[in-house]
Amino acid sequence: MPGADASGLADFVRQAREWLARHARPRQDRDEASSDVAVFHDLPFDEEKALLERICAWQHVKFDAGYGALTWPAEYGGAGLAPLFEEAFAEVEAEFDTPGSHELASVSLHLIAPTVRLFGTPEQQERLARPLLRGDELACQLFSEPSAGSDLAGLSTRAVRDGDDWVVTGQKVWSSGAQFAGWGELIARTDPDVPKHKGMTAFLLPMGTPGVEVRPLRQMSGGSSFCEVFLEEVRIPDSLRLGGVGEGWRVALATLGFERGHSGQTSSVGGGYAQLVALARKLGRTGDPEVRRLLAEVWVHEKTAQIAAQRDRETRLAGIEPGPIGSLRKLAWSQRLTLVSEAAAVVLGPRLVADTGDGTFKWTEHVLGAPGYRIAGGSDEVQRTIIGERLLGLPQEPRTDRDVPWREVPR
Question: pTM of the predicted model, to two decimals?
Fold first, then answer.
């Protein structure tokens, strides 16, 4: 492997392409008009499980060859390279036929593994960090609740200390892939007598623990990627506490920061400009002024996102953390998904709501799935608040519950 400086990037790309050519088939030119445009998976349980198994198997191969954790230190099996190398590898990997992606695999690798590295004890890191990176373990987020979504700090799942254990009771929802996860990163309330942000603690929960019940939720797009998770007197040993008691908000913010930073990199989710142009040509709509205007807007969004990603790469190479700029990227990304939906609706017209048998009805999977990313990783409204307060320096919004004990906050 070349050194961690950018000067070795060309050699790295050449070696990576040679390695990929030995382990995967080159991707064939695809017919954009018939390509998948779904935002979320719509697969039967067995097929979704098999997809995850293929993704994990491919991650094993990459990790063992030194390509599965490029930015991680050597003690975790990583290569210690700059993020630019990871992004370059992803671009080269896209030239080859690989198993694809899944929300749970992405959460495990890009969100929970770095959170364990940041807050975990040496024993927790040994137990989970490397297995998550290699695809040996999968972990979901257990954050949101029916009454605590955008206001995550208002969660009410309780964890009560009982000797060396914590006894947890409550409900979580919107947990992607929980039905396939072996672990969960759980945020629970451990002190109801302090303000809501100060009374939470994070835990690593084995999903097979007695008292844990996972129920997949059928989405309007057809799939069941999300789950609700019920916790009934679930005992978690204190050795699986992640971070200090009362530091759950800090842990959650770190995980959400990883999520927002990663969201802007998943530009392959759903349909895009190439698929829309192919659709417009197939239906003879390229001469329509409104179609052309919307296609141009999607193209501009995608090019702007590419420029923003390059700026972020240069920032990281300079040793500067992007910080709240991740909220701006995430907001722009969810807006692009919405714009693609608007363009598809105009191009398709009545075909969007009626299956005419010509293959265009699949766009409903994008249109019905895209709104989910206006919520995932923090709603659009939350992102705008972060942008206003932390990037633009605007006054903070009034918060009547700032110094009020959680127990006294009206719900």
Answer: 0.87
